[in-house]
Design brief:
This protein has 256 residues and is an all-beta fold. It folds into two domains: 93 residues, von Hippel-Lindau disease tumour suppressor,  beta domain (Immunoglobulin-like, Sandwich); 96 residues, von Hippel-Lindau disease tumour suppressor,  beta domain (Immunoglobulin-like, Sandwich), CATH 2.60.40. Helix content is 0%, strand content 40%. The protein has a four-stranded mixed beta sheet, with no helix packed on it. Belongs to the VHL family. It holds the Pfam family VHL.
C-alpha cells in the first residue's frame, strides 16, 4: 500500500458506509530493517449501520466484537504466493484489507477480538487457502514476552487430514476447549506419526482444559462412525499458539 513516492499510507476501514479512506502515515511501527517492506496501519472505526456492504459472507458467529484491547500485528508472508488479507467486521462480513507479496510484511493496528483470514490474492473467492499464525482464522494477541507487535506468519494451509502431522516444539500451551454445540464433541490430537488419538469426549455446553504444545494439531468430530467434523475456532483443525493469555481458548462450533 505504499505510494509511488515511497511514503507509507494509512488505511481506514469505515464501518459506517463501507468505504475506505487513505491518508499518509509516517509511523509504520516497524524496525529500521523493515524499510523495504510494505507496512500498513489499519484502523477499524467503531460505528456500523445496516447499509454496510458485504464483501463476502463468513460462517455464523465469526465477527469482530470489541474495541477495548488494541494490538499491533506484523503479518509476514511466507506462503509462496501473493495473499489478500481480510478483516471480518462487526456483522460477520469480509472486508478486503490489503495484499502482501510473498516475502514481504505489513504492520497493522487492530484489536484482540477482531478475526482475520488470508486468501490467494488472484482468487476472487474468499477461501481458507492460507494459515495465519498456524490457524485458518487469526485472532490477534501479543506473545508471552510482549514486544512492539505480535508476529503472524502466513503460510500455505493444509488441504486434507493426511497433511496434519504434529511436530511439538517443546513450548507448552494450556488450552481450554469449550463446546458450544448441542452434542458431544470427540476431541482428537494428531500425533507425530499422523495418527489420530482420542483425548477427550466433551459434552455439549461443557469445557475441558489440557496442557499441550505448539505445533500440534487437533480435530473434533460429532460422530465417530461417520467422522463428521466440527469447527475449532472456526477452522477444521486447531493448532495451539502460546500468547500472553494464561489459558488459550478454543471454541467448538457447528458447520453451517
Amino acid at each position: 500500500m505504499a505510494s509511488s513516492s515511497g511514503e507509507e499510507t494509512s488505511l481506514n476501514l469505515n464501518i459506517k458506509d463501507g468505504t475506505r479512506n487513505y491518508s499518509k502515515s509516517t509511523d509504520s511501527g516497524s524496525d529500521p530493517d523493515d524499510s523495504n517492506n510494505n507496512n500498513t496501519i489499519i484502523t477499524q472505526q467503531s460505528e456500523q449501520t445496516k447499509n454496510t456492504k458485504p464483501q463476502g459472507q463468513i460462517r455464523a458467529g465469526l465477527r469482530s466484537l470489541y474495541l477495548d484491547k488494541p494490538v499491533r500485528v506484523k503479518f509476514v508472508n511466507h506462503s509462496g504466493k501473493e495473499v489478500q488479507l481480510y478483516w471480518i467486521n462487526f456483522v460477520g462480513e469480509c472486508e478486503k484489507a490489503f495484499k502482501i507479496l510473498d516475502g514481504k510484511s505489513e504492520v497493522v493496528d487492530t484489536f484482540e477480538t477482531h478475526p482475520w483470514i488470508a486468501a490467494n490474492a488472484r482468487n476472487k473467492k474468499v477461501s481458507h487457502a492460507f494459515t495465519i499464525g498456524n490457524n485458518l482464522v487469526y485472532y490477534p494477541l501479543m506473545g508471552p514476552n510482549g514486544g512492539k507487535y505480535a508476529v503472524a506468519e502466513i503460510r500455505k494451509a493444509p488441504e486434507k487430514l493426511a497433511d496434519l502431522i504434529s511436530r511439538p516444539n517443546g513450548t507448552e500451551v494450556l488450552v481450554k476447549f469449550i463446546n458450544r454445540t448441542s452434542r458431544p464433541a470427540y476431541l482428537e490430537m494428531v500425533n507425530p506419526e499422523g495418527d489420530r488419538e482420542l483425548k477427550h469426549t466433551l459434552e455439549a455446553g461443557q469445557s475441558w482444559t489440557t496442557c499441550t504444545q505448539e505445533k500440534t494439531f487437533w480435530i473434533t468430530t460429532m460422530d465417530q462412525e461417520t467422522d463428521e467434523g466440527l469447527l475449532l475456532n472456526y477452522g477444521w483443525y486447531y493448532s495451539p499458539v502460546k500468547t500472553r493469555m494464561k489459558k488459550e481458548r478454543c471454541y467448538i462450533t457447528d458447520y453451517i
